[in-house]
Amino acid sequence: MDHDGTAPIQGFVVEEQLELTLVELCQACHADEAFVVRWVWEGVLEPSGDTPQNWRFRGDALRRARMAWRLSRDLEIDSAGVALALDLLDELAALRARLERAGGDHGPAAR
């Protein structure tokens, strides 16, 4: 317990601890295996392992795969376009984080 009588809360981010196979990732994001394989070749997802049967995806790949699937399905963007869109979204998130660290405006106008 801390000096004020409260116990600190400890936890971990499940995404970082999670590891998914190709089949599990496909099931979790509702995407066909062919889409996920193309996303790997385009650099959208970066599994460990040397063949699709041995690929293992970290938990954060699930978020990217779900976003990739929505871009593919809803906007009919091809795999190369999905890779570009996700790279741009990552860049935007990094710039927003930098702006926030620098103490920039946090209002809607900053977005």
From TrEMBL:
Cited Pfam families: MerR_2
Protein name per UniProt: MerR family transcriptional regulator
